[in-house]
Design a protein that fits this description.
The complex is a heterodimer of chains A (86) and B (233).
Chain A lengths: L1 E10 L6 H12 L11 E8 L5 H16 L5 E10 L2
Antiparallel strand pairs in A: 1-2, 1-3
Chain B lengths: L1 E6 L6 H11 L3 E6 L10 E4 L21 H9 L3 E5 L1 H8 L6 E3 L7 E9 L15 E8 L3 E3 L2 H9 L3 E5 L13 E5 L5 E4 L19 H19 L1
Parallel strand pairs in B: 1-2, 1-3, 3-4, 4-11
Antiparallel strand pairs in B: 5-8, 6-7, 6-9, 9-10, 10-11
Classes of the chains: A alpha+beta (86), B alpha/beta (233).
Amino acid sequence: MDWEVKIETKLKDGILDPQGKAVKTGLKSLGYENVESVHVGKYMELILDDIETEDKAEDMVIDMCEKLLANPVIEDYKYEITRMER
Amino acid sequence: MKAGVVTFPGSNCDQDVFHVLKNIMDIETEMIWHKDRNLNGFDLIVLPGGFSYGDYLRTGAIARFANIMDPVIEFANNGGFVLGICNGFQILLESDLLPGAMKINDNLKFVCKNIKLKVEDVNTPFTNQYEKNEIIDMPVAHGEGNYYIDQKRLDNLKRNNQIILSYKNEKENPNGSIENIAGICNKERNVFGLMPHPERCSEAVISPGRSDGYRMFASVISEINKRGDQVAR
């Protein structure tokens, strides 16, 4: 079975995000006064081939996030796994 | 003694470090390719500055999985001296050889200028030729040098005197780094990472009147020679 994986990483809550802060300033200067905070993260899409179960795919995704895709010292990650029909 | 300088795809200070070690410090120095899987007979390994793997994903994140890094980590864990400069420092953080992580500079700018640093600790193989609290000059050139570490680990760094170099004060801090940290070592003190570039201020022709980088290389060479003498005796 093949799986489509969507992964998002962003700086952990409480860690000042310089990019988010700059984007917020930009939005405010465009007149969007209601913007309280902005966090800039990363978004990745993966396709995994030939894995029997969603649990196995999930284990692999967590492993990949912990080892490379996110830096657990400063970043949180979340993911979404869906089975591909093809 | 023999030093090695690792080249990753995107390293751009590797030749500068090689030049300083070989021609200025006059020690045997070899270039090491990132695909190599062995490190034999080295006393010092330098991970140089640059933009390894285009800084994709995070600075140093992909270089950390280059073939050469397993032997570098083993070398470090066995007490070998490892110096990480700028991108090299970022790679050491991603490799967990040093604690903490780098964020994008607070002002979102790539900073490239000379800066005043304070030598916080001289009881390391890399700073034994300086005076404690001495103010030195060194160039910085980076976009992601905003060092971050959580409070608990920061306390550990302080308790173990692992903060070796700091920006002179808030005003000199070019990137928003926590506690003005510019360079740290591991608990065992054989692995040292810093954002400034000692190789860019090690000879009169490039930085007239300033040899503050020279003394960093002289420190580690003197330490290695001292240990060599002890072994010989």
